[in-house]
Amino acid sequence: xxxxxxxxxxxxxxxxxxxxxxxxxxxxxxxxxxxxxxxxxxxxxxxxxxxxxxxxxxxxxxxxxxxxxxxxxxxxxxxxxxxxxxxxxxxxxxxxxxxxxxxxxxxxxxxxxxxxxxxxxxxxxxxxxxxxxxxxxxxxxxxxxxxxxxxxxxxxxxxxxxxxxxxxxxxxxxxxxxxxxxxxxxxxxxxxxxxxxxxxxxxxxxxxxxxxxxxxxxxxxxxxxxxxxxxxxxxxxxxxxxxxxxxxxxxxxxxxxxxxxxxxxxxxxxxxxxxxxxxxxxxxxxxxxxxxxxxxxxxxxxxxxxxxxxxxxxxxxxxxxxxxx
Length: 325
Ligand code: AMP
Ligand code: GLY
Known about the structure:
Elements: H1 2-6, E1 10-16, H2 19-29, E2 34-41, H3 44-47, E3 52-54, H4 62-71, E4 76-79, H5 82-86, H6 89-95, E5 99-101, H7 105-112, H8 114-123, E6 131-134, H9 137-146, E7 152-155, E8 164-166, H10 170-182, E9 193-196, E10 202-211, E11 215-217, E12 222-223, E13 241-242, H11 250-270, E14 276-286, E15 289-296, H12 304-307, H13 315-323
Parallel strand pairs: 1-2, 1-4, 2-3, 4-5
Antiparallel strand pairs: 6-9, 7-8, 7-9, 10-11, 10-14, 12-13, 14-15
Helix pairs in contact: 7-8, 9-10
Adenosine monophosphate binds at residues 129, 152, 154, 164, 166, 196-199, 203, 225, 235, 282, 293-294.
């Protein structure tokens, strides 16, 4: 597909409408291989990039996105956010023989379900915090009563970055458990709750381009997680990002590549769900070494806004190489 389109210049569809997607669109628009970038739904920033056009289709409207891809003879689809990945957009595109940058629904489950993610980490001996899952508040509260230190309370499913409560007291944890399991604060995403050991240390975002088998790690970045001066407020999805990270050197990247990325890609391939796209690992640098807090099955937002401007290679070439293995 790459050869066929190189002469005419490729049409690329970027799905999403955040700052992350603007960064992706900006980098793609610089590629000599790209004729046009369509963004669904995009934002005023993407609309202002030369050679880019917004189309008013939501990132989760899978049927409309497939239709658009056909109508515009799109050569490559790049999926920004997690929801369309978990909904199986890449699987649908693959069925239609359209190159797509992003993991399948089966591989995206690492982000889509925290209990699935935890089981995956444990069975593959990848370092992470201890945790227990519950579907009823009575069980969760009984477990909570036995803990000396308040745990981190996590809704199992996708909750737009708001499903994690870092409890300061047992009472905070109890309120969170009741809100999620009894009051349905996150709907279906909160049908199950994880109570996880609280980890301490600096947090870094490590992203890697993956082609199903191999990976190439990007420089580590950090994002500003907590609201308010002095990090006194609740966690957010990230309010800004920076590079270089003063806490992540080449040695750390090599360690994470060896202890996290390599076994993750090998296990996913062995399970019949090879990982293609960006794999993002959220790492806590604990006194016992780096531990996985989470996987994201996509570029970070806002981390992408500091990572992609550093890229010297052609992003379209990287996307095609990953998408086609
Ligand atoms: P997650 O969605 O699991 O990445 O959690 C969102 C944020 O909550 C993370 O980026 C951390 O800042 C924080 N967090 C999650 N799990 C833990 C943990 N076990 N210990 C301390 N902080 C955590
Ligand atoms: N900045 C955190 C995330 O993209 O999930």
